[in-house]
Write a structure and sequence with these properties.
Largest sheet: none
Radius of gyration: 17 Å
Number of helices: 11
Structural class: mainly alpha
Number of strands: 0
Distance between the termini: 48 Å
Length: 167
């Protein structure tokens, strides 16, 4: 339905006012159209808020969105800044373990919104969290607030991380 709606919306050109449309609809618009207008950052900021699970994990469309987002945001390697992580939003759910490791804690907030993880991603999250080199600090220093911020990642924590968290 969203795919059909996207076709109707673009009959007279690509929409400029992205705030007027549901984020899930934007998943079906062409990112390259927005790259041409120079507003690809705005487009991906909206896409990052969409329910990415509308598209099947590993689908060509989802891969294309992530690839074009990385180009738009000029992310040449696996290190993603906190600002770009904010723009990518839920698109970080498709970044591989190398991105998670290289970006330190920059992706943790967005990763905590992901529905599922690949084994490589899980290991990378554990590695980053276990290092303590994040804005959240080492697990020994965490509070209830920290756990709330990372709530979506708690199922990934292994015994070595869990035992360090204060009661």
């Amino acid at each position: 339905q969203l795919h059909c709606l996207a076709k109707m919306v673009t009959l007279h050109g690509i929409p400029q006012d992205l705030d007027s449309y549901p984020e899930d609809l934007l998943l079906f618009l062409s990112p390259s159209d927005y790259a041409a207008t120079g507003s690809c950052r705005q487009y991906f900021a909206h896409v990052g808020k969409a329910n990415l699970d509308v598209l099947q994990r590993g689908s060509p469309r989802r891969k294309q969105l992530l690839a074009e987002a990385l180009v738009c945001l000029k992310i040449p390697g696996p290190q993603v800044s906190e600002e770009n992580a904010e723009i990518l939003g839920r698109l970080v759910c498709d970044l591989g373990g190398e991105y998670i490791r290289s970006s330190g804690g920059n992706l943790l907030k967005q990763l905590s919104q992901c529905e599922s993880f690949l084994p490589d991603q899980e290991e990378a999250v554990r590695s980053v969290i276990g290092s303590g080199n994040t804005t959240f600090g080492p697990p020994e220093a965490w509070s209830a607030f920290t756990l709330n911020e990372l709530s979506g990642l708690i199922p990934l924590f292994d015994h070595s991380i869990l035992q360090k968290i204060p009661k």
